[in-house]
Amino acid sequence: MKSTVLVLGALASLATAQSLCDQYGYYAANNYYFNNNMWGKNSGSGSACTYVDRTSASGVAYHVQWQWSGGDNNVKAYPYSGKTLSNKKLVSQISSMPSSASWSYTGGNIRADVAYDLFTASNANHDTSSGDYELMIWLGKLGNVQPIGSQVATVNVAGQNWNLWDGYNGAMRVYSFVAPSGQMNSLSADIKQFFNYVSQNRGFPASSQYLITAQFGTEPFTGGPATFTVTNWSLDVN
Ligand SMILES: *[C@@H]1O[C@H](CO)[C@@H](O)[C@H](O)[C@H]1NC(C)=O
User: Fold this and answer.
1) d(CA 106, ligand 1 centre) in Å
2) What pLDDT, in 10s, does the model give residues 46-93?
3) Topology annotation, domain 2-235
4) Which terminal residue of the chain, N or C, has fewer Cβ atoms less than 10 Å from its own Cβ?
């Protein structure tokens, strides 16, 4: 009887998702990591929890439940999955970054983006919560939210059209590629091509900038209760 209880306990813990509800609740496995990252929570009121549904070397799945109000123009959180970058490379030394992402949203009054967030810095050991440059790829733009800076062009990268925004967050230059539909629920692409575009066209110094983070998640502003579900996200940096 006792051993049956132990076995059932082990099965239950395998089946239970990791629940990350603390401000910076963190979990890592199989060269991916997760952070509930409620960095801007004090600009409004609400909460978020990230639930890790699957980790494997070939991709991860997770979902996030959140609700936020107040501070309409402030990002409250960036719950995400990231790829562990064990030896940092200069962007010019990266040959490809094959990635796929599949996501969906349910809930009411959602004002949020769904985005890749890639930081680079001239110092490979720069603090990973910012960089000298930030490159975002907005697959989702739900509600009247917008990136930093202003829209400067519509461009074709990785076989898709994007509205390109360019601007500064303090001293950090931010490039944001926004899917015109605001609802690109899946992407399978070599995302190194976004860096190639900004190197060739927008003054990004690829040969002196290290890629320090590569993440995918959602930035809620206000709304909910909402559920953001990522059925698969994968990234390799070659
Ligand atoms: C996730 O995507 C990667 C890359 O396309 C693929 O190799 C992997 O099989 C996918 N995993 C699932 C569970 O769909």
Assistant:
1) 23
2) 999 999 999 999 999 999 999 999 999 999 999 999 999 999 999 999
3) Jelly Rolls (2.60.120)
4) N
Long-range contacts of the stretch 190-194 (C-beta < 8 A, 24+): 190/96, 190/97, 190/98, 190/99, 190/158, 191/97, 191/98, 191/99, 191/116, 191/118, 191/137, 191/158, 191/235, 192/94, 192/95, 192/96, 192/97, 193/157, 193/158, 194/135, 194/137, 194/157, 194/158
User: 29 C-alpha to center of ligand 1: Å?
Assistant: 16
- More confident call, 227 vs 2: 227
User: Where along the chain do its domains lie?
Assistant: 2-235
Question: pLDDT tens digits, residue range 159-203?
Answer: 999 999 999 999 999 999 999 999 999 999 999 999 999 999 999
Whether the predicted model's global pTM rises above the 0.90 cut: yes
